[in-house]
Amino acid sequence: MINVKDYGVVGDGVTNNTEVIKKVIDIAEAQGGGTVYFPAGRYLTGTIELKDNMTLYLDAGCEILGSPNPDDYPMITKELLPGYNREGHSGLIKAFKRKNVSIIGRGTLNGQGQNWWHTPENVHRPRAIQTILCDNLLIQGISIINSAMWTVHPICCTNITIDGITIKNPWNSPNTDGINPESCSNVHISNCTVDVGDDCLTLKSGTEDDELQKQRPCENIVITNCTMINGHGGVVIGSEMSGGVKNVTISNCVFNGTDRGIRIKTRRKRGGAVEDVIISNILMENVLSPFVINGYYQCGGASPDDESLFSLKKLPIEDNTPVIRNINISNIRATGVTASAAYIYGIPERPVEGVTLSNFSVETVKTEGDLKDKPIMAFHAPFTRGEGVFCTNIKNSTFSNISVKVQSGPAVEFGDAEDIRVSGVHAEGTSEPIRVKEGSYVKVTL
Fold first, then answer.
1. Element (H or E) spanning 73, and its range?
2. E strands, 107-259, in order
3. What is the pLDDT confidence band of residue 121, given thresholds at 50, 70 and 90?
């Protein structure tokens, strides 16, 4: 164990320790690894780059403060990381092509994002923790606050455990997602509390032009016993999913005020498949919509006039037509819902397939005045207020034991649906439990 204070690192919150900490890391690397120990104190620094077989231990009372100087965070360029489509500053804590790396303790990592959030020239903001092409990672116990950008961002890593961490970024801080595994495999995330300004936890695998990530699916993911607060989504898949996202379980979580709860988003030409996802035992409160699937995700500089992306017509299936299938959702309880109980909006040439929605209980609430929200970010999606479950472009799916209290419209509505089985719908606030639009095949057992 190496105590950084024994090597001249100063914990006064003012002295910039970037270069001294680099020397400490070099000493630890020369010994074959070990623990780099930060005792109580406030340590100002830029990027801390960890090496093989190394543990960063932040003791209780320790606070790592991110330097406001961009020069203290080396740039990650396309030359350094071929095929990676997003250049930017290295993370406050970084590991690159390393193994057996741990970041643990009861201390705090403070990205001091206020120095970055509203400065236009600093578009390449550093992550709080960034690991790239690493194997066997452990992040445990620490708190992370005020990240400048995405907070915990593993890229193309394997065997990751994230346990018992707390993330708190202001609700209005831009793009401060909580935990974003991207093209990672064998990931366990448990016992975490995430309160951020964007999506709380997101699974990604690159866009169609991200050559590095799209070769690797994000797969074998377990998310359990977590609390998600604020943010644009509790657990989100996509929209960067060109490499695919598969074999995911999400269970025993609480979401409060996360806009959408579970959110799957993609669009034409993105490619990839989201498949074999199991979601169970989730409590939600004060969300716009508890569960959404969006095949027409509108962000990323897209135009509503781009027919190849956003046409409502049935277009030819291509190699880069995205797939969403085999999504199992059960034992969901949501109250204080303002927009809609659920919103599934597939694309006509490749409908969402194999959804099982069971033991799903949602209570919508009245909102003040004419306030309406968009349940999904799609150009065609209408603004809604207190509506039920809406599904279009969906096939071979089962809905059972659905209880919905609505403010307007039917409890459950299907359009362009094929081979749908519905049983046990309880509706409150409407005389129309189920609405099936012409041309859809839905078998209903009340």
1. none
2. 108-110, 129-132, 135-140, 143-145, 152-155, 158-163, 166-168, 185-190, 193-196, 201-203, 218-224, 227-230, 233-238, 245-256
3. low
Fold agreement (1-180, 199-446): yes
pTM of the prediction?
Answer: 0.96
Tokens of 370: 């004419």
Domain 199-446 belongs to what architecture?
3 Solenoid (2.160)
- 107-124 core/surface letters (b: 16 or more CB in 10 A; e: else): bbbbbbbebbbeeeebeb
Do residues 194 and 222 touch, judged by C-beta distance below 8 A? no
Which residues form the catalytic set? 198, 232
Beta bridge partners of 42: 12, 63
Residue 56's pLDDT band (cuts 50, 70, 90):
very high
**Domain spans of the chain, in order of start:** 1-180, 199-446
Is residue 304 helix, strand or coil? coil
* pLDDT, tens only, 170-207: 999 999 999 999 999 999 999 999 999 999 999 999 99
- Fold designation for 1-180: Pectate Lyase C-like (2.160.20)
Nearest to 158 by CA among 199, 100, 201: 100
| The pLDDT of residue 439 | 86
6 Cβ neighbours under 8 A, 6+ residues apart: none
For residues 231 and 284, give the distance between their C-alpha atoms in angstroms, rounded to a whole number: 13
For residue 119, what are its two tokens?
């400065």
Q: Which residues pair with 358 in a beta bridge?
A: 330, 400
Neighbours of 249 (CB within 10 A): 15
Which residues have C-beta within 8 Å of that of residue 144, sequence separation ≥ 6? 108, 109, 110, 111, 128, 129, 151, 152, 165, 166, 167, 168
Asked if pLDDT for residue 370 goes beyond 80, the answer is: no
**CA 380, 288, 341, 293: dihedral to nearest 10 degrees?**
50
